[in-house]
Ferritin-like domain-containing protein
Amino acid sequence: MTNVTSAHDVFITGLKNAHAMENQALSIMKPQLSRIEHYPEVAAQLDLHIRETENQMHRLEQILADVDESHSSLKDAALSFTGSMAALTHSMASDEILKNSYANYAFEHFEIAAYISLITAAEESGATQATALLRQNLGEERRMAGWIEENLPIVTRAYIALSASGERADV
């Protein structure tokens, strides 16, 4: 019984952490989207992923409600603040679009790892009813990471071309 209790605790903590992580993702992506001028494909994907992320948060809230828990407002606020600071830091860079792309790619992989672990904790704790929703979140994170990877050469080439033409290329 100890393993089930421990796995349940890991699962609950993981759910709360995932909710805060998605809140942080929003605090990173929304400022990026508002600043993009020259990269419409990136803007479209960020807009799509913001909506996916909002749905992911709702799924996590549903799972938490199903186990009589709620998300941690403190964790949400703390990670939202750090996400906002990261977005602000990149906005000062002359190659903001590239730095944002690198950071977004890394963050998507962080989220992928978190969901793989969370799905495992759900299975270990017997919360198998949650795995379908968690796998949906995982799939969306994998899709976004794949899009960034596939399009990073395109974004880099566009950045180089804009820079070479003397145009503002950062966003």
